[in-house]
Here is the input.
Amino acid sequence: MTRSWLFSSRSFPWLLAGLFFGLAALGLIVPLIVGILWSLVNPRAGWFPPNLVPPSLSLDNWRAMFSVPEIGQAAIASFTIAPIVTALCGALALPTGYALGRRPVPFRRGIEFLVLAPIIMPGIVIATGLGSMFIRFGLAHTLIGVILVQTVVVLPFMIRIVTATFEAVPQDLIDAARNLGAGPLSIGWRVLIPLVVPGLFAGGVFTFIGSMEEFVLTFIVGSPDVRTLPVLLFAYLGGRSQIFTYAAVVTIVLLAPTIALLFLAERALKQEYLAAGLGKM
Amino acid sequence: MAQVELRGVTKVYGPTAAVQDVHLEARDGEFLTILGPSGCGKTTTLRIVAGLLDPDAGEVLIDGQPVHHLPAHRRETAMVFQSYALFPHMTVADNVAFGLRMRRVPPGERHARVEEALRMVELSGLGDRYPRALSGGQAQRVAVARAVVTRPKVLLFDEPLSNLDAKLRERLRLELRALQQRLRVTTIYVTHDQAEALVLSDRIVVMDKGRVVEVGTPTEVYRRPRARITAEFLGIANLIEATVVGAQGDRYLADTAVGRLEVACADRLTRGDAVTLSFRPEDIRIGQGPVNCLSGDVQQAAYLGSITDYIIRVNGVLMRVQEPGEPARHVGETVHLVLPAVPAVIREQ
Amino acid sequence: MAQAIPGPYSAVDRSRQAARHRREQWINLLLLLPGVGFLALFLIVPLAQVFLRSVGLAIIGQAGHFTWDYYRQFWSEAQYREGFFFSLWLGVASTVISLGTALVFSALMQVKFPGRLLISVLYKIPLVVPSLVAAFLILSLIAPGGILARLVFHWGWDWPRLVYDRWGWGIIFVLVWHNVPFMMVIISAVMAGIPHDILDAARNLGAPPWAVFRFITVPLSMAGISAAALLVFIQVLGAFAVPSLMESAYPLALPVIMQTEMMYHANWALSSALGSVLTLASALVLFLYYRLTQGRGAALR
Here is the structure.
């Protein structure tokens, strides 16, 4: 519709396309391919310089996923914790979002700042504080501890998105419903909830992804007893031994669902939710 | 000042043509209005002149030079938008100065010209305000000042008054006209408000469904529309199908649903011609008369302050008649109507 | 007939008002308690503990007394001080590079080009890639034994040292890789929210595309741009995972030092002091952000 007014040259859009796809290839596709290759490296042959491709491929590393207990355990931990954290965030955020989004609330600025705080504070500091607090209460190294700790840092996003969603419900709709005879419960069930579901869904996706990827707090509070995939990955990448092959397997197990979720969210969500959740402070 | 010409301009969106084969000419210094209902393509046409849209076919010429390959920022047109589109993060003065900054006018001259433009729209002294602190009328004037300060070859208006209340609209449109006459800038003005078109224009272009229907002066298009849509869109029209059955003296005789009428027409008509006659409500007189006298029942009488608007049924045809003053006829009353012998005769199919 | 304006409320109305007000407040409390209460408990309490511990109080297992010693230790010992500056450097460098890149990319994304839709989904992938994974993937790419090194070796060239280096360029690269999409999401959303009319008006008044960007788009996107920059800076300041994996032996980023002190030396007090320094630095940046946006944002509302 609007012309590509940048240059009189008609080829500019194609140059742009080339630039972006080139960058995507180099910055995204190539690393992912390399990662996948690492997961397929034959452990007996290894993959050392100067080989550009692994000399021989095998599925041994993937089989190890089942034979090496820690990988399986970490996967189970991650995929158990994430839904629970998401559900918990949803339950906590719903009343909060409603109050902040539709009611005149005292100390609003203070509350908004509190909700913002976990996002703007250095994660390591929260981890330090919670770590010692949980040790005192015996929650350190437990599943519940990890769940609680992850919730602290993903809850703000859920609250912000749900609040924005509630705010966006036009008062006219509620007034019309009331005028037509609906009581507060009816309004909640038939008007508010359906309108809020997309926001809840968006928040849920973010929360799930956030929980799957959360590292610092889980690391400090959970390890070595409770290890999620990111924590395991850290062990394979740092420290004394670097096991790139296992790291690649864990990476793929971690990335596949999250990227899939991303595509799902892209199709189902509008930009407003992202911006609302993150953009305005 | 410049002459603007569109030749065969077409713009297509998917299966629909927003603008179809438009030929248009705005003469040097003329105030040309493009008038039509929503969706008729008038705004699209304007944006093509401004360079904000690319036509799919056709040419745009300014002073005889083709400009349709020039990007928007290199054409010497200036547009006043319906939403005013003032830059919210700049003061009024900075808004007005923007075009001059883009043309690298030195600061001293820039300042002087901004002052002059604000004076022209009677907003001197408001230079330091921000757009959010302006009323609708003030914002509109800033938009006008911002456009005229650049001394464009062509001034474009996209329904600039439609967001204002009726009284303000009436006042501002006269001011706009006065401004244009003082500056003598070729102006193309888009609106759906026929009163505006009639008041402001040197000539009116009527558009419908992406095509130019008719071009003429305000008097011509109001009194002697050549197309049905023109008659319907400009004011109220009683449109009556007629068949020419003969001639009597210097008038034609036509058979219609309301009876046989005598009609004077400048064009030559022959027996059997099918035409549409258009009668304006204010031209129909309630009373008796020697020629074209009909009788009908009053269905409705609406008091509008200065006039009363009647709907009168004649032989099953509903006709609208307007009389000055308060309602003198009641609903249900049978009255006589005299139709003028000089209606508009529309000959399109 | 117009009615007379009613006089002051009667006593009955006032008490009913008060009762209604109280009930509203109870409802507010009930609604806010789960979410806000959760955060208050699990955020404020630990934070308070961190601050207390940094001045020598509330230490596990021993009675403490108020002291600035730990802060002094932070400032006087080179490894801690330089660790702080190193974290600051990482923050500034990552933020500036990410912002510049994200601005340009966001602007380019406003132009229609073939495949834009696909790119608009692809570029968001790094958002869901944890920084750890990003570190791994990019390590395998640019590390001394990585793919690119092997590639250029194949052609007889040397690969520069990009990771485990003193300035942390590898770390910065990973953080930029991770944060540019994040910034782009925010900035693109804000840019898309600028009314088209305003951009058209600027073009109509003679502004070439780069001028539209500089004088209209960027100023009107400032809210989103500052928010993005703020979030990235603070996040990088407190980043632990990536620096831990990719840094040289010296200097170490402050969060890494904190973790070592905490988990291996059980030096909770010092670790808390270091954490407080990070938090204060973040708070300062936040404060500056609010000052900046108050002035600007007023014009836009």
Q: What stands out?
A: Chain A touches chain B at residues 1-3, 5, 8 (CB under 8 Å). The mean pLDDT of chain A is 81.
